[in-house]
Design a protein that fits this description.
single chain, about 280 residues, alpha+beta, four-stranded mixed beta sheet, about 10% strand, nuclease, hydrolase activity
């Protein structure tokens, strides 16, 4: 594991959130609220905006995207082998610490039931690793902000399809649908999927020796460094705002593993600010 860590001031943001606000994850700031001027905002939001996100506040569009890229690129990287244990923490079932929650099916399954058998869980790349051909390389191939535990069979059905509405029901994964070129996750995680895809587009912009990942409005992207459908992903993000599980996951990744955040979980309104 790399020893690269974010600046001390950004690390202190989390300490302020936990010590002052007494909560596990920050709530969401009101849309377009400038930093440091609204005394009615929750302390957790103020702490993050005044420290971790300070260089992004007041920006929009390409300037906001560039600022967020710089902020979230300051991270500790994990190896693909280390992802197994990391997911046992990031996706732990809050009602059963021996289990993880599988992304698409929503099933609570033993942390030990991982592997390659049809009923096991494995490591799903929500931004399909063939879209940009980054494989399992340390970086986009191991970034916990888009790696999730999923049922092996359901993962295979999703494959490297783009995201869109429609299709036939996915067996053993109620609420998910698929067709020849797209996959629609269940309603409870539509926003999660969208925010993971958009995180990847901001984090990986052509530097680090990897492709410039960008969403588009197509569903036939193949191995190009694109995933669609952007218009649908934006709808999903708006319709399914971050819940407690997603916020906690963001916090665990920040606390214990990569020490960076998915900004669209903390500030969902930034989706429309960047992709208008």
């Amino acid at each position: 594991m790399s020893t690269h860590r974010p600046s001390r001031s950004r690390r202190l943001a989390l300490l302020a959130v936990v010590a002052v606000a007494g909560i596990a994850a920050p709530s969401v700031a009101a849309a377009n609220t400038p930093a440091t001027t609204d005394t009615n905002r929750p302390t957790a939001v103020q702490a993050l905006d005044d420290t971790y996100y300070q260089d992004a506040m007041g920006k929009s569009g390409p300037e906001l995207k560039a600022a967020l890229h710089t902020i979230i690129s300051d991270q500790t990287k994990v190896s693909y082998d280390e992802v197994w244990d990391a997911l046992k923490s990031t996706d732990e079932d809050p009602d059963n610490p021996s289990n993880v929650i599988l992304l698409y099916s929503g099933r609570s399954q033993s942390k030990d039931a991982s592997g390659g058998n049809p009923d096991d869980w494995n490591r799903e790349h929500v931004w399909a690793k063939s879209h940009g051909d980054f494989g399992t390389a340390t970086g986009p191939g191991t970034d916990l902000h888009h790696l999730r535990p999923t049922n092996v069979t359901v993962n295979s059905i999703r494959g490297n399809k783009d995201f869109d509405n429609g299709g036939q029901d996915v067996p053993d994964a109620s609420g998910n649908r698929t067709d020849d070129d797209s996959f629609e996750p269940r309603d409870q995680v539509k926003g999660d999927v969208a925010r993971m895809i958009l995180y990847m587009a901001v984090r990986y912009d052509g530097g680090d020796g990897f492709a410039d990942l960008e969403p588009n409005d197509n569903v036939d992207n193949g191995s190009a460094p694109h995933i669609g459908r952007l218009s649908v992903l934006k709808e999903w993000s708006a319709e399914d705002p971050p819940d407690a599980f997603e916020k906690n996951r963001n916090q665990v990744i920040y606390d214990s593993f990569q020490h960076n955040r998915n900004p669209f979980i903390d500030h969902p309104e930034w989706v429309d600010s960047i992709w208008k």
